[in-house]
Amino acid sequence: MDIGFIQAGYQVLWANDLKKDACNTYQENIGSHVVCADISHIDPASIPECDVVIGGPPCQGFSVAGKMDPTDPRSQMIWSFFEVVVAKRPRFFVMENVKALGKLAKFADVRETLLNRFRQAGYRVRFEILNSAEYGVPQARERFILIGTRDKKSKIAFPKPSDTRISVRTAIGDLPPAGTGINQGVCKAKITIAQRPVRRRSPFAGMLFNGMGRPLDLERPSCTLPASMGGNKTPIIEQNLLEDPSADSWVRAHHAMVMTEEPYDAYQIEVPSYLRRLTVRECARLQGFPDDFLFSGSQSQQFSQIGNAVPPPLAFEIAKSLLPALYQHDTVRSSQRELPFPRPAGPAPS
Questions:
Q1: Which of 39, 100, 200, 303 has the fewest C-beta atoms lying within 10 Å of its C-beta?
Q2: Cβ contacts of residue 105 below 8 Å, gap of 6+?
Q3: Does 345 score more than 50 pLDDT?
Q4: Beta strands 92-98 and 142-149, pairing class
Q5: Domains of the chain (ranges plus CATH)?
Q6: How far apart are CA 33 and CA 27, in angstroms?
Q7: Is 26 strand, coil or helix?
Q8: What is the structure's pLDDT at 77?
Q9: Is 187 among the residues known to form the active site?
Q10: Which of 292, 269, 53 lies closest to 182 in space, CA to CA?
Q11: Confidence grade of residue 350 (pLDDT, cut at 50, 70, 90)
Q12: How far apart are CA 350 and CA 343, in angstroms?
């Protein structure tokens, strides 16, 4: 999220993460102001005063990919975020989490409690479910975005979605072959056919392969990239189609056969060599990271960092949407609805 805010002209003063590899990645790419520690053990007084607090508390406890357990210890980190906001009293805050926190009735009590506690602390709050694919990200990724402000007259504005969609082909088609040049991080997990596939009308929606790694439609944005990538949950592409859009699709042909519901022996079906899994760099592209952003740690940790991230282009659009309110006393800035980067001249919001 910090990358998008920096691109929009903000100055990041302080950052926190629990995982060492993620902190090393942050330090190498963004700055040394990252503190690697459990946020619940950090004295808020040590955090600099600021205009905006942003963050994405761990979402596994609310995710449909997990057990959706509101008592999961990771689910409690939304309250750690709340405590930092209350302690620092920023003019605005932005919190990101999974779609389920904002949509499912299962989490209605948690959601309402969170909103009411912010209101009791003096903040006006509003949330929306934003799909990253509508904000310049080549990935369909719906996320709960909560924005709050204690400025009585400031409008809580969310970015306007775009009609433009960036396809997987557009996002990664110009990269060199997997394992060469900047296209590093080859996933070696074997691709095998599911004996009992989950059938869907689309060849890209069900489970045709073992391990939950879905094939991607190169002409559309990617499906949501999970943090569990790096093994057999890493998405799959057809290299022949990436190189030649007119080539035959083995995935579509196999899906057509599966949909007949005729019995078949998966062990007798040979997966062609041009089916492969995404690389680290390709996943980074689909999440919206710039190519000069490098990831620290093992390859599995690099995949995890990408899957856990807020797409920088989405964060950039959210950051821009806050600028008119932050610069409300500057008529030039506040009149610019679409504020490009680099930021307008003047002091940067912190």
A1: 200
A2: none
A3: no
A4: antiparallel
A5: 2-165+310-334 (3.40.50.150), 168-304 (3.90.120)
A6: 7
A7: helix
A8: 87
A9: no
A10: 292
A11: low
A12: 13
Count CA atoms within 13 Å of residue 321 on its CB side: 21
Candidate list 23, 59, 187, 223, residue with the active-site label: 59
Phi/psi of residue 65, nearest 5 degrees: -80, -10
Q: Please tell me the pTM assigned to this model.
A: 0.89
pLDDT digits (tens, 9 = 90+) for 214-252: 999 999 999 999 999 999 999 999 999 999 999 999 999
Residue 314 burial (CB < 10 Å; 0-12/13-18/19+)? Answer: buried
Q: Is 88 helix (H, G, I), strand (E, B) or coil?
A: helix
Q: Which residue matches tokens 């060199």?
A: 176
Identify the burial level of 46 via C-beta atoms within 10 angstroms of its C-beta, where 0-12 means exposed, 13-18 middle and 19 or more buried: exposed
Phi, psi for residue 242 in degrees, rounded to 5: -65, -35
**∠ CA(135), CA(68), CA(229), 5° rounding?**
55
State residue 46 phi and psi, 5-degree precision. Answer: -80, -10
Report pLDDT digits (tens) over 90-108: 999 999 999 999 988 888 9
Which residue type does 172 have?
I
HEC sequence for 142-201 = EEEEEEEECCCCCCCCCCCCCCCCCCHHHHHCCCCCCCECCECCCCCCCCCEEEEEECCC
> Which tokens belong to 188?
């070696």
Residue 169 has pLDDT above 70, yes or no: yes
Cα dihedral sign, 135-139-141-145: negative
Instruction: From residue 330, give the alpha-carbon distance in Å to each of 35, 117, 166, 344.
Output: 34, 32, 35, 11
What is the rounded average pLDDT for all residues in the chain? Answer: 89
Tell me which H or E stretch contains 87.
Answer: helix 77-88
The one-letter amino acid code at 228 reads S
pLDDT at 76: 82
The pLDDT of residue 71? 62
